[in-house]
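#help-structures
NK: newbie question, is this the right format to request a structure? protein is Ferredoxin
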Amino acid sequence: MIRKIIQIDDKKCNGCGACAEACHEGAIGMVNGKAKLLRDDYCDGLGDCLPTCPTGAISFVEREAAAYDEKAVQENMRKKNRMNSPSVGVHAGCPGSRMQRIQHSQESAPSAPMQAESQLRQWPCQIKLVPVGAPCFEGAKLLIAADCSAYAYARMHEDFMRGKVTLIGCPKLDNVDYSEKLTQIIQNNNIQSVTIVRMEVPCCGGLELAAKKALQASGKFIPWQVVTISIDGKILE
């Protein structure tokens, strides 16, 4: 039958998993870090997933598709609930939300406490809160960092924040596209360089994408780089 159903643009999907969590029918799943429509007959065509997507990767189309099967959906959700019970411990959804324990060697700990100095040069530092025309942006080297990166990478202040204006954010938690505001910041100020520090988890791709879109939309040629941090605190090549 011809009916309305969602489609997901693989190139736009940043793997945040928000749509999979919003889909009450279990029609969307994460496959190799990307959102996929798993089965046509699980999709009711109502589009609860659309407003949750920060990159606009989801849209409606009309095409040949199996009819929505409510009984199959209910059975699938019962199976999911059993699999996701605490006794089983199986994770579903965004890979960035998967619970993991991280072991660190105690040998690397310093023998005596060291006095560290904060390298944060301005307040506020959240992308959503900082004014576009803040004086700190003039002539600044800009650091756009994922919220989690400072907790995962031990030398964040010394290696990345020193001498830079730091902006932090998480597109999954804020559920916004930062690109418009970042574009205004870059366009309206004399930014010298941009460094993007993100985590390795797929949902962090939204921050990198927003920064790249802003650099392109600004019309300026500015040196930039992306640094990816692993969840155990290492810089990935």
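mod (FA): yep, format's fine, and the tokens are attached above. Strands lie at 2-8, 28-31, 34-37, 58-64, 141-146, 165-169, 193-199, 224-229, 235-236.
NK: thank you!
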